[in-house]
């Protein structure tokens, strides 16, 4: 068994591997990690590149493109390690980035997972959208981070450099105990991509396990490498999967109330997209997402029952029981500190 297995899921990402994999290998193996690339049946020259230029990297070959969530599930079943690190192919790491994360986990057995501070590749002094300094959700399921709320991304001035309990750690750079990963059921492969790490971390919190951001470790994320912002498929997956995540994990006392509000808020969001100049495709994607959720909701009844049965923590502080929409758009509070500190 390895202590640390870094697993990069790849699909036609040879360009990213050329740019960033060398540093991942150099700055991770020196701290005892083994680096894997799990390939989702790429049709570019990814495999040839790995076999020719990155011979120390181990390859897990998947027979088709399973997407992010199920791709990781399939790959991780082939890897025996105490800690998994799920790492995007467009992440730049620096020397000893792993040490603070692993040391924290070794010393905090209540922790199931943690993430580093995520900074922007294109502006190293700013947080990166996909995870910043740790993630939360509000009462209605809207995700946000220390350092990023909706489209407001803060500059990193050290304001979130404390180790903090969070609800979700970014899937772009997620260190998780393998035992916790499998006990919680892994990523939900039906999501394909988007919201899957939030769903997994929420399940872990319901089970009484903890998630943290450890900002002493920091990495740089390019972002948008798979589906750029404004892509109708990304809009569809985000809305469908977010609703599904709520259905799976909300307690009975909140489910009806939250879902009624989301019905209204989602349609308001769709029309706002048109007003703000987003594409007709994004507008339609919200309607398609709600229809898709309605069609497959019953498929998650068994999951919901199982999650509620294993609940040990119904009062999760990292679920902020307010509306971030109200705070952001009505109160004008655009940062995490202004909302919650």
Tell me about this structure.
This protein is α/β, with parallel strands linked by helices and 341 residues long. α6 packs parallel to α7 (232-249), α7 packs antiparallel against α8 and α8 runs antiparallel to α9 (280-296). The model has no long low-confidence stretch (mean pLDDT 95). It starts with a strand and ends with a helix. The chain is 41% helix and 21% strand. The protein has 12 helices and 14 strands. It has helices at residues 14-29, 46-53, 67-76, 98-107, 178-183, 196-206, 232-249, 252-275, 280-296, 301-309, 324-330, 336-340; strands at residues 2-10, 33-39, 58-61, 81-87, 91-92, 111-120, 135-138, 143-145, 148-149, 152-153, 164-166, 173-177, 210-221, 319-320. The longest helix is centred in the C-terminal third of the chain and has 24 residues, at 252-275. The strands form 3 sheets. Strands 1, 2, 3, 4, 5, 6, 11, 12 and 13 form a 9-stranded mixed β-sheet that branches.
Assembly form of the protein: single chain
| Helix content estimate | 40-55%
Main β-sheet: number of strands, strand sense, barrel status?
9 strands, mixed
- The count of strands amounts to 14
Strand content: 15-25%
The SSE string, one letter per element, is EHEHEHEEHEEEEEEEHHEHHHHEHH
Shape: globular
